Amino acid sequence: GQGYISEAALAVVAYARDVLGLQTLCGIVAPDNLASKRILEKAGMRPAGQKVIPGSDKQVDFYLSDRL
């Protein structure tokens, strides 16, 4: 509730862009985890459908960043 996770997510995005030179990031989250979905959206990611975890029948929500 103090914003630490949001800060960490933004730091990961900055590191991926500035140090690693990545252009796209993806995130996965359990469909019922609304707090984590908000964090991904705050970090600049958008919903991109659902995926099934390989070797499992569990579905997760898939998020993609726009250009970093």
Structure description:
The chain has about 70 residues and is α+β, with helices and mostly antiparallel strands. The chain is built from 2 helices and 3 strands. The protein has helices at about 5-20, 35-40; strands spanning about 25-30, 45-50, 60-65. The chain has a 3-stranded antiparallel sheet with strand order 1-3-2, with helices on one face. A hairpin with a 6-residue loop joins strand 2 and strand 3.
Gist of the model:
The chain is built from two helices and three strands, in the order αβαββ.
Layout of helices and strands:
Elements: H1 4-18, E1 26-29, H2 34-42, E2 45-52, E3 59-65
Antiparallel strand pairs: 1-3, 2-3
Keywords, separated by commas or semicolons:
68 residues; alpha+beta; 3 strands; 28% strand; globular
Proportion of residues in helical segments: 25-40%
Radius of gyration: 13 Å
Overall pLDDT score: 93
Q: How do the helices and strands follow one another from N- to C-terminus?
A: HEHEE
Strands across the major sheet, in which order?
Answer: 1-3-2
The profile of the biggest β sheet is: 3 strands, antiparallel
Q: Structural class of the helix and strand makeup? A: alpha+beta
Number of strands: 3
Ranges where pLDDT stays below 50 over 5 or more residues in a row are none
The helix tally amounts to: 2
Strand % is 25-35%
Distance between the termini: 26 Å
Q: What's the overall geometry?
A: globular
